[in-house]
Amino acid sequence: MEKLDLKNILFGLQSKTSTLAKLFSKKIDSFLIIEISTKLSILSISNRNGLKVNAFKSFPIPKDKRDEAVSSCIKDFIKENNVDYKNTVLNPSLESTLIKRIQIPAVPDSELFDAVKWQIKDDISFDVANAVIDYSVIKKTTKEDGSKILDIIAIAVREEKIKQQVLLLKQAGLDSIAVNISPFGYLKIIEQNFTLQPALPLAALNIDDSSSYLAIYKDNKFEFFREIPISIDRLKDSLKGVLATQSGKIELSSSEIDEIISSIGIPLEESSYKNKINYIQLLSLMRPVLERLIIEVKRSLSYYDTEYGAGLVKKIMIAGGGVKIPNFEKFLAKELRLDVENIALPDKFVISSAVNQSELSECLSSLGLVLDYEKQINLLPFEFRTQQIENVEKVSLRWVVFIAVLFLTMSFLFTKVRIGILNRNLNNAKFQLSNLMPVKEFTQNLAAISNFTNNIKKSQPPLGAILKKLSNIAGKEIFFYQLSVNCESKDGFIRGFVKTLDQNPDAVLTEFISSMKNSGYFSNASIANVSKEKKETGDIAVFNINFKLK
To answer: Which end of the chain is more exposed for a tag (fewer CB within 10 A), N or C?
Structure first.
């Protein structure tokens, strides 16, 4: 006998009424775009006859009373620019967000969401039940045996984080119609600026104050994402400290460092800063951070080509705060031996004369998120989508009610016919029930065994994911030769060594311990001992790290 699934019925009715509402509702052509990261950026956009930026402003976000400051800035922006619409596209920070390329066997569209969810659940540092998940299909391929495989970019974000930001906008009187992230915005900006050739993937390197990432696009698809452990703040930190010069010891202030980054950037030619420090000294201070950036970018491009066979990236677009660092693109072009340039505003966009285009260049990804936003990724939690649908349906309530009544009437007639068939089936089922009791008993025993084995599997720590995480956070100077984990107590240790060279092994290990604690897999980690040894290849520092899994 069939079982009625009320949840699926409600989802179906919501989908039908949402479609009907779109038929009779007015197209949205005015938006606010709000980007919340280390700072708050607000854009007023109209998209009637091409996209136009009417107003833009960026605000620093204080750490204390953060929500009050964001709400206040939004209200001030709305008042100053006479904004009379509420539709908002939210571009949240990438914190607590998983972006991963996966492969799954081709399944029906109705089952694809569940297949993606269970494929990525072990990679999420939080409970998958508390995640908002969406995905984009890259391509569908057929293997030699005839089976079909889907390549997918999956996105998962902690629902609590998104809800908090959506509610913050709601308190300011705004309605969130979509939530999407920067890499998909850059895809739309690149589509406007370039004709992507099928055989040539193109990358966007987004450099911001506290984080960076590399995204690769091909055939108008977002194909690859990787976080890069370099930021503008790290570049600034490299200029801190006391420097010995011919004029004596010099220590740059924070304001001087900011001025160097914004006015000189990456020093590539003979110059000096206020006759205090020359370009060679500046570049030598920045060199470790810049070399790490080059290594990570090369590693990412090589992995993309090797893993997916999609071809070599020939062009990189600098995005985010990196576009405002002088000579940055020239330095990368020289070191990577690739075509590198700053991402630019598309000529098709109209920018109001009151908008600071230099500041706007840091927020181009947000502009791209409003282009075909209905067809893009949407991480808006379900409860807010329901509210959005209810607001739209008010415009055409009579039409929706009429068609809904017609739909329910037809459903009633079909249900009556179905009930007659089910009554006949019920009589047959009663006759067969006595023959099914042994099968039921066997099924119950099998289920008990399955539950027992599943509980054993769940108690085991995810060692594969832990090894991946350790490999990602370990610097190139750290080497492991033993990893041991007690699955019952979840205690373990790592043995390895650090190539000391000119580096301080304690500092390297301390940074690695910090990364372990922040990874989401370790509740505690500490250095048990460190000892230096001389080898034929050079000095090393042998270490032993104890840890405890969560």
So the answer is: N
Q: What dihedral angle (degrees, nearest 10) is formed by the CA atoms of 291, 293, 297, 303?
A: 80
- Contact call for residues 257 and 240 (beta carbons, < 8 A): yes
Residue closest to 281 by CA, chosen among 329, 311, 238, 324: 238
Token pair listed for 160:
């609590």
Indicate the pairing of strand 538-549 with strand 97-105. unpaired
DSSP code of 269? S
Provide the CA 468 distance to its chain's centre, in angstroms. Answer: 18
Whole-number Å distance between alpha carbons of 115 and 112:
5
Q: How far apart are CA 198 and CA 531, in angstroms?
A: 53
Helix axes 6-24, 397-459, angle to 10 degrees: 140
**Spatial contact of 226 and 220, defined as CB atoms under 8 Å apart:** no
Percentages helix, strand, coil for the chain (3-state, rounded to 5) are: 45, 30, 25
pLDDT tens digits for range 269-289 = 777 777 778 888 888 889 999
The mean pLDDT of the chain is 82
Tens digits of per-residue pLDDT, 386-411?
A: 555 555 455 455 656 667 777 777 77
Residue 132's closest CA among 175, 102, 166? 166
Cβ count within 10 A of residue 173: 13
Residues in the chain: 550
Separation CA 486–CA 456 (nearest Å): 15
Task: Assess contact for 204 and 183: CB atoms under 8 A.
Answer: yes
Contacts of 150 (CB under 8 A, 6+ apart): 103, 104, 105, 106, 107, 112, 137, 139, 140
Provide φ and ψ at 500, rounded to 5°.
-70, -50
Q: What type of residue sits at position 35?
A: E
- CATH classification for the domain delimited by 181-344, as one of 1.10.1740.10, 3.50.50.60, 3.40.50.720, 3.30.420.40: 3.30.420.40
The conformation of residue 28, written as its DSSP 8-state character, comes to: P
- CA dist., res. 82 & res. 84, Å (int): 6
C-alpha dihedral (278, 283, 288, 290), degrees to nearest 10: 150
The rounded distance, in Å, linking the Cα atoms of 355 and 45 is: 12
Burial 217-232 (b: 16+ CB within 10 A, else e): bbeebbbbbbebebbb
Which residue shows structure tokens 């949407």?
378
Tokens of 50: 């091409």
Q: Is the dihedral of CA 358, 363, 365, 368 positive or negative?
A: negative
Please tell me the least confidently modeled range out of 54-68, 107-121, 351-365, 413-427: 413-427
- How far the first Cα of the chain sits from its last, in Å, is 44
Class of domain 463-549: alpha beta
Neighbour tally for 76: CB within 10 Å: 13
What pLDDT was estimated at residue 78?
92
Q: Is 248 left (phi over 0), alpha (psi -120 to 50) or beta?
A: left
pLDDT tens digits, 192-220 = 776 555 568 999 999 999 889 999 999 88
- Which amino acid is it at 418? R
Domain map of the chain by residue range? 181-344, 463-549
